[in-house]
Design a protein that fits this description.
about 130 residues, Arc Repressor Mutant, subunit A, 6 helices, about 0% strand
C-alpha cells in the first residue's frame, strides 16, 4: 500500500468515525453544528460550498466543524454511546453466525435421524427474528 493509499484509508476511517459519533450524538449539538457536520460529512460538500450556502466564511465553517467534532469526541469520551453501539452490533453479528451454525446442525440432525425438530426450528427462527 502506497503512502497516499495509507493517507486515504486513514482519512476514510476518520470520516467514518465522525459520522458514527454524529449518529450517536447529533441531538446534543446545536442546529448550526448539525447542519455543518451533515453538509460536510454526509453530503460531502467542501468548506467553500458550505460557506457559500450559509453565507459565512470558509474559516467560520472550518472553526464550526472543528468545534463540532471536538464536542462529539468529548461526548463519546464521557458517555461511550457509539462504542457501546459498536460492541452491541458486533455481538449481534457473532450471535447470528452462531445461530447459522446451530440451524445447520439441527437440519443435519433432522435429516440423519428423521427426528421432528419443528419446535426447535421455530424457536431458532424466533431467535433470529429478535436479532
Amino acid at each position: 500500500m502506497s503512502p497516499s493509499d495509507h493517507g486515504r484509508a486513514r482519512s476514510l476511517r476518520a470520516r467514518t468515525g465522525v459520522i458514527r459519533l454524529f449518529d450517536a450524538y447529533a441531538d446534543l449539538l446545536t442546529a448550526r453544528q448539525r447542519a455543518f457536520v451533515r453538509m460536510y460529512y454526509h453530503d460531502d460538500l467542501s468548506l467553500g460550498e458550505i460557506a457559500a450556502r450559509r453565507r459565512v466564511t470558509r474559516q467560520a465553517v472550518s472553526d464550526a466543524l472543528r468545534r463540532s467534532v471536538a464536542e462529539l469526541q468529548h461526548l463519546e469520551r464521557r458517555l461511550g454511546l457509539a462504542a457501546a453501539r459498536e460492541r452491541a452490533a458486533r455481538s449481534r453479528e457473532e450471535t447470528r453466525a452462531l445461530l447459522t451454525v446451530l440451524e445447520g446442525e439441527v437440519a443435519r440432525l433432522a435429516a440423519r435421524n428423521g427426528t421432528n425438530v419443528d419446535p426447535l426450528q421455530r424457536a431458532l427462527g424466533a431467535l433470529r427474528e429478535s436479532l
